[in-house]
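Hi there, hope your week has been kind to you so far. For a while now I've been wondering how a particular protein folds. I'm sending you its amino acid sequence along with the backbone structure tokens. Could you read through the record and tell me how the tokens relate to the sequence? Take your time with it, there's no hurry, and the full record follows here.
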Amino acid sequence: MATYIELQKQIEALQKEAEALKSHERDGVIERMKEAIAVYEISAEDLGLASGRGMRSGRGGPGGRRGPQRRAEGVAYTDGKGNTWGGRGPRPRWLKDALANGAQLTDFAKG
């Protein structure tokens, strides 16, 4: 049977191992989150992270989802299939794929 001190040493070693694993996995999680944020055009406000802004009526409080209520003037590019991009931040996957297949950015310009 292990002594208290031996168990404490095992706990410390496991905590260090867990932190190292967490750090390693964190990079992949952040990358997937960035991709999803770009694809779905998620803003800091959508996530409830926008500072200095209080609750707005009709939005379900801070961080409420905009969904289809997104302002039309914020859309600069569309594929006509419901995919849009405001022209700011990383290009979404649908646009990257289309450009890689020979499309031009001007093909998607909302005008």
About this structure: DSSP finds two helices and two strands in the chain. The mean pLDDT is 81.
